[in-house]
Amino acid sequence: MRVPSIRLCTDGVQLQGSLMTTVSDDVKRATGVQKRPSSNSWHWGIKAPSDLKHLYASQWAHRCSLETADLREANTKAAGLRAEWMKLLKVASLPPRD
Question: Alpha carbon of 41 to those of 13, 31, 55, 63: distances in Å?
Fold first, then answer.
């Protein structure tokens, strides 16, 4: 049995590891989850909203390795990252307060 661990993504968000170790063929990738051809690990990315694109060097607001080859674990980590980034992007898109 694998012991859960805390992993750190490049932006400093801590994620709790999962005990899931197998993936069936019917598991679908969560939003933003990709597998690069040169890697066994799953990666995650979120594009910058059009009103904030000028703040980023590329079309991506954030991209990082999920540091797992297990799709279920990657989906769990990606869901946490997506929720956190959606909050950040929503706040950044709000008009300034007077």
Answer: 18, 16, 28, 13
